[in-house]
Amino acid sequence: MSTIIRLAEERDFDRIMDVEKAAYEKYLQAPIDVFEFRYHIHPEGFWVADLDGEVFGYSTCMRMWIDPKFPPKTREDAIGYFSASDGKMHGLGLHHNPEGNTLYGMSTAVHPEYTRRGVGTQLIRASQRFVIDNDMDFRLAGLRMAGYDSHCKRTVDMSAEEYIKLRDYTRDGQPYEGWQRLFARNGFEVLGVEENYYPEDIASRGYGLLMLWQNKRES
Ligand SMILES: CC(C)(COP(=O)(O)OP(=O)(O)OC[C@H]1O[C@@H](n2cnc3c(N)ncnc32)[C@H](O)[C@@H]1OP(=O)(O)O)[C@@H](O)C(=O)NCCC(=O)NCCS
C-alpha cells in the first residue's frame, strides 16, 4: 500500500466531495461546482492523494501575480473567496493568471481517518515543486486558525496577532497553532492575520492567516 500524489481527474470529484464533507464543518464546505470551476481554470494545480486507487486528500491551487515588494494583506486582495453563508463566489478565479509568479492554495484537505500521517505535507510539497518547476517566485497560503477559540477559552483571551506568536516549546518550538505549524514546517512565513476571513468559522473566531513561501533559487 502506498500513497501517491497525482493530478486530479474528473472521475475523482465524487471522492473529493466525500473528503470535503468529512474534513470541513458544513458551513465551510465548498460545493462541487467550485471544484469543477477550479479544475476547469487550472487543472495543473489540482492534486489528489491516492492510496491504491482511493482518493483521500486534495489540494487546489491557482496562479496569480503578486508584487514581492507589496504582498497582499488579505485573501480578498489576493484572489477572492467562496462564502458558504451566501453560497456565492466572490471574485474567485478572476485573478487567475497563467503567467502568475505565485501559486495560491485555494483549499487543502485530508480525510480525518488519514490525517497526521504526512499526507498534508506531501500535498503542500507537490505545490512547492510546481513553483520550482515553473520557475515561479512564491507559494501563498490562506489558512484558518482553528485552534484559536479553544485556546483562548482554555487559557486567557488574547488577540489573533498574539495567538500566532505562540510556540509549542513542549515539542519542537514550532507555532502552537496547528495549521500554522504545518505550513511553517514547510518553510512558510507569516504575512499577517486577517479579520473576517471566514466569519462563520467559530473555531478561528473568523480570523485567517496569510503565509508565504519563497522559491529560493540556487544561484
Ligand atoms: C490541515 C490538513 C490538510 C493537514 O493534513 P495532514 O495529512 O494531517 O498533515 P500532515 O500529517 O502532513 O501534518 C500534520 C500537521 O498538520 C497539522 N494538523 C493536522 N490535523 C490537525 C488538527 N486536527 N488540528 C490542528 N492541526 C492539525 C498539525 O500541524 C500537524 O502536526 P502535528 O501532528 O505535529 O500537530 C488536515 O488536517 C485537514 O484536512 N484538515 C481539515 C481541513 C482544513 O481545515 N484544511 C485547511 C487547511 S488551512
SSE map:
Blueprint: E1 3-7, H1 13-23, H2 32-41, E2 46-51, E3 54-64, H3 75-78, E4 81-83, E5 88-90, E6 102-110, H4 119-133, E7 138-144, H5 148-154, H6 160-163, H7 178-185, E8 189-194, E9 208-214
Parallel strand pairs: 6-7
Antiparallel strand pairs: 1-2, 2-3, 3-6, 4-5, 7-9, 8-9
Description:
It is a single chain. The protein is an alpha+beta fold and 219 residues long. It has one domain (3-146, 178-214): Gcn5-related N-acetyltransferase (GNAT) (Aminopeptidase, 3-Layer(aba) Sandwich), CATH 3.40.630.30. The protein contains seven helices and nine strands; from the N terminus they run βααββαβββαβαααββ. The protein has helices at residues 13-23, 32-41, 75-78, 119-133, 148-154, 160-163, 178-185; strands at 3-7, 46-51, 54-64, 81-83, 88-90, 102-110, 138-144, 189-194, 208-214. The strands form two sheets. A seven-stranded mixed sheet has the order 1-2-3-6-7-9-8, sandwiched between helices. The protein has a two-stranded antiparallel ribbon with strand order 4-5. The N and C termini lie far apart (39 Å). The model has no long low-confidence stretch (mean pLDDT 91). It binds coenzyme A. Residues 23-24, 108-110, 115-121, 143-144, 147, 178-179, 181-182 line the site of coenzyme A.
Q: How large, in whole angstroms, is the Cα Rg? A: 17 Å
List the total number of helices.
Answer: 7
Q: Report mean pLDDT, rounded to a whole number.
A: 91
Q: H/E element string? A: EHHEEHEEEHEHHHEE
The main sheet comes to:
7 strands, mixed
Q: How large a portion of the residues is in β-strands, by DSSP E?
A: 25-35%
Question: In percent, how helical is the residue content?
Answer: 25-40%
Instruction: Name the overall outline.
Output: globular
Superfamily at the CATH H level?
Gcn5-related N-acetyltransferase (GNAT)
Q: In CATH terms, what is the architecture?
A: 3-Layer(aba) Sandwich
Bound chemical compounds: coenzyme A
CATH topology: Aminopeptidase
Low-pLDDT stretches are: none
CATH top level is Alpha Beta
Whole-number tally of structural domains: 1
Which strand order does the major sheet show?
1-2-3-6-7-9-8
